[in-house]
Amino acid sequence: MSRFVDRVTIHVAAGDGGNGCASVHREKFKPLGGPDGGNGGRGGDVRLVVDRGVHTLLDFHHRPHARASNGKQGRGSMRNGAIGEDLVLPVPDGTVVLTPDGEVLADLVGIGTTFVAAEGGRGGLGNAALASKARKAPGFALLGEPGEEFELVLELKSVADAGLLGFPSAGKSSLISVLSAAKPKIADYPFTTLVPNLGVVTAGETVFTVADVPGLIPGASQGKGLGLDFLRHIERCAVLVHVVDCATHEPGRDPLSDVDALETELAEYTPALAEHGAGDLASRPRLVVLNKVDVPEARELAEMVRPDLEARGWPVFEVSTASHEGLRELSFAMAEAVREYRAEQPEPEPARVVVRPAGVDDSGFTVEADPEFDDAFVVRGEKPERWVRQTNFDNDEAVGFLADRLAKLGVEEALAKNGAQPGSQVTIGQMTFDWEPSTPAGVAGVLSGRGTDLRLEQTDRVSAADRKAAKKARRTSLDEEGGYAGE
Questions:
Q1: Coil, helix or strand at residue 61
Q2: Start and end of every Obg domain (predicted)?
Q3: Predicted TM-score of the model (pTM)
Q4: Burial class of 289 by CB neighbour count within 10 A (0 to 12, 13 to 18, 19+)
Q5: Cross-strand bridge partners of residue 281
Q6: Domain boundaries of the chain, sorted by first residue
Q7: Under 8 Å CB-to-CB from 26, ≥6 apart: which residues?
């Protein structure tokens, strides 16, 4: 049996970038023909695209993890790695993308609208692209960057022109079944409808969609019944239609109290709709449908309460889904309300690509004291963190190249101004190392073998880890001798 899912949590992961290649061109009589390592390919993106053939988020419920393909590694002879293939995930029209904290990232309305959920990692440069006057034949290449990974919440808000609201068993499913070709489940017990049903109605030259929202009860805006899960499906409706059961035998129920109870729930359900350009629910036009007038007692009750409802300025229609009485007038009135609402709305925007803009960091990086350790610092910034991710720390020449880039950016000078001393512990991204100011950009021209850097071998300084171990040993010895002086 098919299921309707309108809220899911998914994990998306873009593809990783391919590593660059460190290669030297070789041919007969040219054993060292220069660097010819190609660049790694970019990882594939994860994209959400509105597809007219998708009407539910059920596929994401069964497969919540999505990952794009990785970029390929570069090769010799200047051959770049292949770019990873993008992963396209079709979503229904009206899907809202949120963070787990509830921040709205994108509102996908309109066929073809695309949201880049996760961007693929950059491919690493090969040694051919890294060659310079100082390094004519680099013995290293840059690593590819990992792709972005996010946990996202997808919510589906039905894109319907008219929403049918009412208590359970008010006849909403029956009404949409006679107004359109939709075939919802109909039975004589409450909460028969567990999912919103959509139907297409034609009235003259106007074609519009109608949503049958599952039955609401008092307290729905606080989570009672099914209301909180499905109230979101009326946020985009141009007109709200109250369907009132005039033949109910429940004590304390009458058409006026039913309408008042529904209006109270709509007033309390006030989500942030300004970003969608939809306005407040209180501003939407209302129609009132007094249903089941084929029952004599129901017709008498409808005639009794009709003047009170019309006094509120709402058009009132007496209908019967069994005899089809009043349905034509109702459909044309709904079409007129939809036409007026559409005329007031701005011109629809064409299908677009939605991306998350990255924050602009004018300073490039920041240097802060590490709160967890003494004489330790943390460097934060897009550039230095990216450079660290691209560095192969098993290759001394690559480490020296990183030191030159950081010094040129000004990290060395900033660390010194913040009180860093030779051997201080510095953390950049996921990498922690001892700072040695003996590797500035000014001495980048030191010649050494491929894959090595003499500057990294010329220090006999005690590392931060060794100093900490010695301090711990001294403290232990003092404890064994009877404690610190003065205790």
A1: helix
A2: 2-159
A3: 0.64
A4: buried
A5: none
A6: 1-156, 162-344, 366-481
A7: 32, 33
Structure tokens at 30: 């040219």
Q: Band the pLDDT of 126: cuts 50, 70, 90.
A: very high
Confirm or deny that 212 is annotated as ligand binding: yes
Q: Is 20 annotated as a binding residue?
A: no
Q: How far apart are CA 119 and CA 96, in angstroms?
A: 19
User: Does the domain made of 366-481 have the CATH classification 1.10.1040.10?
Assistant: no
How deeply is 93 buried, as exposed, middle or buried, from its count of CB atoms within 10 A (0-12, 13-18, 19+)?
buried
Is 170 marked within a binding site? yes
By the 10 Å C-beta count (0-12 exposed, 13-18 middle, 19+ buried), 412 is classed as buried
* CATH code reported for the domain at 1-156: 2.70.210.12
291 marked as binding residue: yes
- On whether 396 is known to bind a ligand per the annotation, the reply is no
Q: Which position has the higher pLDDT, 115 or 475?
A: 115
Characterize 30-65 residue by residue with b for buried, 16 or more Cβ atoms within 10 angstroms of its Cβ, and e for exposed.
eeeeebbbbbbbbbbbbbbbbeeebebbeebeeeee
The residue to which tokens 């209908």 are assigned: 319
Q: Do domains 1-156 and 162-344 have the same CATH topology?
A: no
- The answer to the question of whether 191 is labelled as a binding residue is yes
Bridge pairing between strands 197-203 and 206-212: antiparallel
Q: 192 among the known binding-site residues?
A: yes
Choosing among 3.60.15.10, 3.40.50.300, 3.30.10.20, 2.102.10.10, the CATH entry for 162-344 is 3.40.50.300
Is there a binding annotation on residue 194? yes
Q: How far is CA 459 from CA 401, 428, 435, in A?
A: 17, 21, 11
SS3 assignment, position 385: helix
Tell me whether residue 292 is annotated as binding: yes
CA torsion 246→247→251→257, rounded to 10°? -10
- Rounded distance between C-alpha atoms, residue 108 and residue 96, angstroms: 6
pLDDT tens digits for 337-357?
A: 888 887 887 665 655 666 666
